[in-house]
Design a protein that fits this description.
Number of helices: 3
Helix content: 10-25%
Oligomer: single chain
Largest sheet: 7 strands, antiparallel
């Protein structure tokens, strides 16, 4: 993806907003070190917890790097209610695959709501709203966005019902998301091309991270065995059940494989 605009100012440079203040405009997301399509870790979410519980700063979940906030920032955890979700809208017939991430973030006494969306495989765009001096305004934005995108209430997410034309709520495996750098991905050249002979070749690091995240997502969401991944000028159908990628434009197919790195379990 092309380089995008700079990240928002840090909290120190931005005055706090009281509840109901106007939000910032959507900003093209800067490319993070790992692919921004990565599914953001989400913990097991307890229903009915109230904001302000003693463990509200527990570092559960991973802050989406597009937020560009200080390293002390955490996903807000209010007594086991972790305000973090990864949504997906998949239409294989039309080669559409989109993600939507929403998080409430906390850094000291500052609270934010981050939303981040785009086509799977691309950095996309994000919107960071805040800082607020308490969690509730950020929670209100988060819950409203969840309702808008899914047609479900966040408070009743355990009974989530998928709606046509809306995003689906994905399950996320914390342990898998925490285990980075355990594997790499390769594709197979079955004929000489572009100076490469027949054989297996590593994906570049960013592409490997994307496919590894898709693999982790698939393990927790078995309906997502086939994904549509945008990469520069090309779009691919990645089938994790048959371990094959297909260039949608050329229909060129290649085998793919996941290779455990030395010292790591696959």
């Amino acid at each position: 993806a092309a380089a995008a605009a700079a990240a928002p100012s840090t909290p120190a440079a931005t005055p706090k907003r009281s509840r109901g203040a106007a939000s910032a405009a959507a900003t093209p997301a800067p490319a993070p070190a790992a692919a921004a399509a990565a599914a953001t870790p989400a913990a097991a979410k307890a229903k009915g917890a109230k904001p302000g519980a003693p463990d509200a700063t527990a570092p559960l979940g991973t802050v989406d790097p597009v937020a560009a906030l200080p390293s002390t920032t955490v996903v807000y955890n209010a007594g086991g209610e972790i305000y973090d979700c990864m949504l997906n809208q998949l239409d294989l017939a039309n080669n559409h695959d989109k993600y939507y991430i929403a998080q409430v973030l906390k850094d000291g006494d500052n609270y934010y709501c981050l939303t981040h969306w785009g086509r799977t495989g691309l950095v996309g765009q994000f919107k960071l709203e805040g800082p607020y001096d308490d969690a509730q305004p950020a929670i209100d934005i988060f819950e409203a966005k969840f309702k808008e995108k899914t047609g479900n209430d966040w408070s009743d997410k355990q009974n989530f019902v998928a709606h046509a034309g809306k995003y689906d709520l994905l399950k996320t495996d914390y342990a898998a998301k925490a285990s980075k750098g355990v594997a790499k991905w390769q594709y197979y050249m079955n004929a000489p091309q572009d100076g490469k002979s027949v054989g297996w070749y590593d994906y570049d690091a960013a592409a490997s991270d994307i496919v590894e995240d898709l693999h982790d997502t698939w393990l927790a969401n078995k309906q997502l065995g086939v994904r549509i991944v945008s990469s520069g000028t090309w779009t691919y159908r990645v089938d994790l059940t048959t371990m094959e990628q297909t260039n949608i434009s050329t229909q060129k197919q290649r085998p793919i494989q996941r290779v455990a790195l030395a010292g790591a379990a696959s």
